[in-house]
Structure formats: structure tokens, C-alpha cells
Amino acid sequence: MPICLAPLALCLPVLAALSTCPASVAADRPRLRFDPSGRFKIAQFSDIHNSAKMDPRTTAAMGKVLDAEKPNLVVLTGDSVSTSDCADAAELREAIRLVAIPMERRGIPWAMVFGNHDTDDLAKFGLTKAQVYRMLRAYAHNVSPPTAPNTYGMGNALLRVAGPKSDRPAFGVWLIDSNAYARGRFGGQELDTYDWIHSDQVAWYVRTSKAAEAELGRKLPGLMFCHICLPEYAQVAASKEYTGERHEAECPSSVNGGMFAALLERRDVLGVAVGHDHTNTYEGRLYGIALGYGGSIGWAAYGLKGDTEAERHRLRGSRIFTIDEAAPARYESRYVTVNSLP
Prior knowledge:
The chain has 342 residues and is α/β, with parallel strands linked by helices. It has a single domain (8-340), classed as Metallo-dependent phosphatases (Purple Acid Phosphatase, chain A, domain 2, 4-Layer Sandwich), CATH 3.60.21.10. The chain has helices spanning 8-18, 56-69, 89-106, 116-119, 129-137, 199-216, 233-239, 259-266, 309-312, and strands at residues 39-45, 73-77, 110-113, 157-162, 169-175, 181-186, 189-194, 222-225, 242-243, 269-274, 283-286, 289-293, 317-324, 332-337. Strand 6 (181-186) and strand 7 (189-194) form a beta hairpin. The relative contact order is 0.16.
């Protein structure tokens, strides 16, 4: 029987949808498809940093974005919960439930990649990352696929978006686990940094990208979502050729795992969207690939420096992507603040 993480009244729709399926797979999982006009909209929510008691301003902000933008898919780009703020496994489950509610109640498909704070204290609960991933996938409207097998991390996957009149994939949404921390001694030196996207993850992306191209007879255009920024973001910042705001230095791993080089060679991923650095909302291009931030929508996460609540939370919001099936390379990307929405 699938795991249900909500009180009984909220669980009934989930149980009805999943009761005949294995715990980690729902037979009627929502299908991602361009709408009849050929448009597909993605809302990125990042860095909610939720605990077992969600700030009502965060819930309201997520709802405001969802109701104003009406996305076809929500991607949570990490640090959705803070395991260090949860006392036990039950509180962690409750934190996840509260994050899921805005999408579940509206019937909006959603997926999530892990951030460093989603998993950094799991050992104290006796839980593994794989178990938490199964919790996410138990929700009726979660569309996270099974994780790529024999690959570092958890949740590395490709979501295929079908055309409005065909089941043939027209767009790809890549979900990559940027992992958490890398600590230890290597070659006589102490390493203490954020983890990186590992070489087998990069190899999986390349294999999957090539397989999609062979199947379709063309490259599958797409966007990639992860939590921690690639080291190449610093080059965009140094160029000052970006739109949006930058209020803090980029915090990638000190080790470059080579994902950007793979993207540059394959040329099917049009842009990368990350979280992690809460007060950056900028987006710029490096060698034709967009590198952008999704800011932070969570009131529990740090925000801007300022003397007033309004200033500290001024940038709370979401990055919105609108893709046209006829011209995916010319997709629209914009950062919307909650205060700017009606």
C-alpha cells in the first residue's frame, strides 16, 4: 500500500489514485503535455526551507503564483524542507506534506530535486534518501520518475513533455541531483565543500540525451533543474550581462563535475535553473545556454538584508518558463515576485 502523508481527509484522493499500484509507482500519474495552443508553462519554486510548521505566508505565496500563472508543471529546486529543523521522521513527513499541499489541492503536476538541506540530517531519523524520494512519489500529482539506476544521487531523471496532439515527446525536463556536501581527505588535502554533479550523472545525461535523439531523429530540446549552481554561473556574474538581481556570491562546489561541458557538446539543454543562493534572481547566457536562478519563495529561508519585513522579503517569488512547442529555443523565462502578482 502506498505511503500517505496527510491526515485521512486529505489522504483519500491519494489512496484512491494509488491503491492498486506499487508504493512508488502510480498507474495514473499525470501525463505532461503541451496545451491545445502549443504552450507549456513551468513554475520553479526554490528554497522553501519548511519544517513541520509551515509559515502561512509561504503557503499563500505558493498559492498566489499557482493561481496567477496556472503552470502545467511545478519543479521544486531543492531545500524544500530543512531536515535540521525537524525533530523526527514524523515531522519530516509533515514538512513534505505541507510543501505538497498547494500543488496537490490544485491538481498540478509537480516534481522535486534534492537540495543539501533536504537530506543533510536524514541519518538521525534512520531514513535514506531513497525512502524520502518514495515519499514524494507517493503523492497523486507528483510526476518524479524512478531515479536513474546505478547513478550517484537520487532523482536523476528526464521528464518528457508530449505534444498537444501526439504522444511523441516534444520537450524534456531534466532533473539532476546536485547532491549535498563533499568532505574528507583526498590526496593529503582536506576537502570541505558542497558536493558536485558526479561523472556518472554526467555520463547518464549524455547517454539519455543521445538515446532520445536516436529515437526521435532529432535532439529533444529541454531545460535542466538542479539545486546548487554550476561553477560556470560565476562567469555569467562576472560578465554582468544578465537580467534580474544578484545580491550574493555564487556558492557552487569547488570541484567542477563537467556538466556544463556536456551540455555545451550535446546542445539540447537550452537552459539551467537552480536555487541555493536565495537572493539571486538573475539569468544570463554562457555560450548560448541560459543559466538562471529561481530565488526563494520560503519565508523560513534567509532573504535580503533590510530594515523592514517588506524589504527582507521583497524578492520572494518564482521563475516562470513558458515554452512554445513550435519554437522551444525561444522560450520565455521571467522571475515574478509575489508582490508583483494581482
